[in-house]
Amino acid sequence: QVQLVESGGGLVQAGGSLRLSCAASGGTFSTYSMGWFRQAPGKEREFVGGISRSAGRTDYRDSVKGRFTISRDNAKNTVYLQMNSLQLEDTAVYYCAADLRNSSPFTVDFRGQVYDYWGQGTQVTVSS
């Protein structure tokens, strides 16, 4: 059983920055890839980005490329989402998720349905 706890959300002005953290417990963190997803009111959940278990590969949705950076510290069992140049449309609840079945150290899956465990989410609100 893996537990994921996000933190770091909040209210920020457009153009500002936030760093989200996701602390994992249970299982062996270094053996699973991690994803970040978000869901805005009235919209479907969408893939934001992910990082492979070796940290050798990161993938992002087009709208956040160049603004968001995902990293992980396997010694701390934590994955991070650094968000810069935040825009109004980045407002959402952000979730981290763990993919335990990805056997490759260098791939990330963008499909939410393959992730096995999810955090409770943290609200990010970007104001004008």
How would you characterize the overall build of this protein?
With 128 residues, the chain is mostly beta strands. The protein is built from no helices and 11 strands. Strands 2, 4, 5, 6, 9, 10 and 11 form a 7-stranded mixed beta sheet that branches. A 4-stranded antiparallel beta sheet has the order 1-3-8-7, with no helix packed on it. A hairpin with a 6-residue loop joins strand 4 and strand 5 (46-51). The chain is globular, with a radius of gyration of 14 Å.
Query: Stretches where pLDDT falls below 50 for ≥5 residues?
Result: none
Overall strand count: 11
- Summarize the amount of helix as a percent range: under 10%
Strand content: over 45%
Radius of gyration: 14 Å
Output mean pLDDT. Answer: 96
Overall spatial form:
globular
**Annotation field: number of helices:** 0
Question: How would you sum up this structure in a few lines?
Answer:
The protein has 128 residues and is mainly β.
Task: Please give a handful of descriptors for the protein shown.
single chain, 128 residues, mainly beta, seven-stranded mixed β-sheet, four-stranded antiparallel β-sheet, 48% strand
